[in-house]
Amino acid sequence: MTSQLFFLIVLGIVSLVLVVLLIRMIIYASVMVHGAVFVRSDQAFIDAVLYEVARSKPKKIIDLGSGDGTIVLALAEREHAVDGIEINPILAWKSQREVRKRGLSAHIYRNSFWNVTLEPYDMVIVYGTTYLMPKLEKKLLAELRPGAVVASNYFEFPGWEVRESRGKVHFYSKIDS
To answer: Which of 21, 81, 84, 145 stands the most exposed, by the fewest C-beta atoms within 10 Å?
Structure first.
């Protein structure tokens, strides 16, 4: 092998590694700024949330990172007072449009849930991600009233004891602090 061919192979490998690292950095920065990547809620999550809502009867519900509004729509169709918070403008617009189209009374706010106080809510629904859960746990424990319920799809809060799990959905109750 000639030294010129060897140089081109090494240059190609180094370039490929740098491109992969750059892509990973862009994705990571996007997630850190804009929140978790959107993943549509499956029927098992919806069913578990509906079961808990029927059981605990919250007066006001919020879906943090409401995405395309699947959970908000399911709850609003059953006449629950529900809000959604979504930072992605396209998903927020899509879900707001669907709420209007169906004539429901739910509200979708385009905002970061870090900027919203959770004190008025009796139930919080979240489909987070690993890096988000410790900080979100602190926010929920600081802002929620005693007796409030939190439903988390798949991901668990590190320092908060799960009250009940239904499949991959974990339920937490805010205990008097």
So the answer is: 21
Task: Single out the residue of 171, 172, 156, 132 nearest to residue 37, CA to CA.
Answer: 132
Sequence-separated (6 or more) residues with CB below 8 Å from residue 100: none
Do residues 69 and 98 touch, judged by C-beta distance below 8 A?
yes
Which residue type occupies 3?
S
Q: What is the DSSP letter of 26?
A: H
* Other beta carbons less than 10 A from residue 135's beta carbon: 11
- pLDDT for 176: 75
Q: How far apart are CA 80 and CA 51, in angstroms?
A: 13
**pLDDT one-digit tens code per residue, 117-173:** 999 999 999 998 888 999 999 999 999 999 999 999 999 999 999 999 999 999 999
First to last CA, the chain: 71
